[in-house]
Specification:
Helices cover 25% and strands 13% of the residues. With 538 residues, it is an alpha/beta fold. Helix 11 packs parallel to helix 14. Bound molecules: 1-deoxynojirimycin.
Length: 538
């Protein structure tokens, strides 16, 4: 093991902060532009750290900031030990990590083990070295099928629609579950395993408190890469071999008191919770909750299943309403179909933003009161809607690979509005930002909302402050309380009660001594209006 980096020295190894943390996701390219070139960067984040501290979050998860050609928003990493020059330098990342820590904010970095960029030295060397070379063994190179090898080696579907294999000039094909610019690594190879353990160490030694593991359920592939039966994903998703990989990662993380967070799209809750056994990952994103529609029975079922499957492995649950891959919450909750499904995303879906916003406010109080840790995606605290991106400005490969049917994920990745009256809403750019901001976003700007007591920003600030200081929040037990149909009511420790009204009529509040916070005004009779939540103290 290399000598510990000085920044690492102040990481608390015994603290289990992650069991209850509120974690803010920063998509660097769209957070704040420090050098005016149209894209967000580390200088922009550093300048806005006081905003994050005031918001009251415990940690920041940064989407990948490494050297990357940006074929998939940085999830095509060319060098894990370098920061992309568009974002800044490694020295700046180190400064950012320690400055954040001084403000009480921990840093979580994003590691992408399933694939690298086609510009990574490993892949370039593999291409140059040719068929049968040891360099090619780090990836999944295969001869094609058909008389002249003109057919792909197997029938696996891509995670992004479109082809899963690309043929190189010497006739071999390589596997990529995402874009051709993201060749999949061969996780049976010891060099691949060693390299990732070294990368974990590299970032823990620079003060990272945790690691988000991208596409964590995909790395292991069935030996021989056989054809899959229709709809059978077991040859490349959630394979048992993964658990050994993450046990080895856990041993590395434990050396540093670091935390591992899995991006696991594994629908079976039993299979999901296996990754959270005490010698594997600490937590994983709860996408079941994210995907559920705005209906009391659906959300309650998700909460119950989540808690039931986390309890036996002793892991805290997580709660996520949106991220850089999915439709923004206020838009989703304002549509006919309030659930989330990648396969169903379409252009111009009718959206009632006032209903969506009311529900998103209630959902914020719900998720912040549930047991475990909670994630919020930049701009969620501003109530940003999903933006319509003009066709000629779309970057996301998901749009192009869908044949233009899926609008892609850029609509939730629009540069943040910081100041209502400044050019580009104060994002910091001197030129048109990399994604256009919609007209009429001034009311969403952080400065405008800071001055408005009833804004989404002030709701989040008050809620996060209460959540930090008050008893009953974060990890711990939950008990359902009797409630009218369509109403969710539960108590936590310390007399904390959360009530959410998803019904069409006002709901009586359960017995309480004080109202801590509501997501919208109570009616004249002190009842909770539809699509509204309240925190009470009994
Ligand atoms: C999941 C990431 O969140 C997403 O943005 C990315 O496109 C894929 N993994 C591939 O890395």
């Amino acid at each position: 093991m290399a000598a510990p980096h000085p920044v690492h020295a102040d990481v608390d190894r015994t603290d289990d902060w992650w069991r209850s943390a509120a974690i803010y996701q920063v998509y660097v390219r769209s957070f704040a532009d420090g050098d005016g070139d149209g894209a967000g960067d580390l200088a922009g984040v550093r300048a806005r750290l006081p905003y994050l501290a005031e918001l009251g979050i415990d940690a920041v998860w940064f989407n990948p900031w490494y050297l990357s050609p940006m074929a998939d928003g940085g999830y095509d990493v060319a060098d894990y030990r370098a920061v992309d020059p568009a974002f800044g330098t490694l020295a700046e990342a180190e400064k950012l990590i320690s400055e954040a820590r001084e403000l009480g904010i921990r840093t979580i970095v994003d590691i992408v083990p399933n694939h690298v960029s086609d510009q990574h030295t490993w892949f370039r060397s593999a291409l140059a070295a040719g068929p049968g070379s040891p360099e090619r063994e780090l990836f999944h190179f295969r001869p094609g099928r058909g008389e002249r090898g003109e057919l792909p080696p197997n029938n696996w579907p891509s995670q992004f629609a479109g082809e899963t294999w690309t043929r190189v000039p010497d006739g071999e094909w390589y596997l990529h579950l995402f874009t051709p610019e993201q060749p999949d690594l061969n996780w049976d190879h010891p060099v691949v395993r060693q390299e990732h353990e070294d990368v974990l160490r590299f970032w823990f030694e620079r003060g990272a408190a945790g690691v988000r593991i991208d596409s964590a359920a995909l790395c292991a592939k069935a030996p021989g890469l056989p054809d899959a039966d229709e709809d059978d994903t077991t040859l490349y998703v959630d394979r048992d071999e993964l658990h050994d990989i993450y046990r080895a990662w856990r041993a590395v993380a434990d050396e540093y008191g670091g935390v591992l967070i899995g991006e696991l799209w594994v629908p079976d809750p039993d299979r999901f919770s296996r990754y959270l056994r005490s010698d594997e990952l600490h937590t994983a994103f709860n996408f079941d909750f994210l995907a559920r529609p705005w209906e009391a029975a659906e959300l309650r079922a998700s909460i119950d299943t989540t808690l039931a499957f986390h309890a036996p492995v002793g892991a805290p649950a997580t709660w996520v309403l949106c991220n850089h891959d999915v439709t923004r919450t206020v838009s989703r909750y304002g549509r006919d179909d309030t659930g989330f499904d990648f396969a169903k995303k379409r252009f111009a879906t009718p959206t009632d933003l006032s209903t969506g916003t009311r529900r998103a406010r209630a959902a914020a109080l719900l998720s912040l009161a549930l047991p475990g840790s909670v994630y919020l995606f930049q701009g969620e605290e501003l109530g940003l809607p999903e933006a319509d991106i003009p066709l000629d400005r779309i970057h996301d490969p998901m749009h192009f690979r869908s044949g233009g049917v899926d609008p892609g994920r850029d609509g939730c990745r629009v540069p943040l509005p910081w100041a209502a009256d400044a050019p580009y809403y104060g994002f910091g750019s001197a030129v048109d930002p990399w994604l256009p901001q919609p007209e009429g976003w001034a009311p969403y700007a952080a400065d405008q909302q800071a001055a408005d007591h009833g804004s989404m920003l002030n709701l989040y600030r008050r809620a996060l402050r209460l959540r930090r200081a008050g008893p009953g929040f974060g990890d711990g037990p939950l008990r359902w309380l009797p409630a009218a149909p369509g109403v969710l009511a539960f108590s936590r420790g310390g007399g904390l009660i959360c009530v959410v009204n998803l019904a069409e009529d006002p709901a009586e509040l359960p017995g309480h001594t004080s109202v801590l916070l509501t997501s919208g005004a109570l009616d004249d009779e002190g009842r909770l209006q539809p699509d509204t939540a309240a925190w009470l103290r009994a």
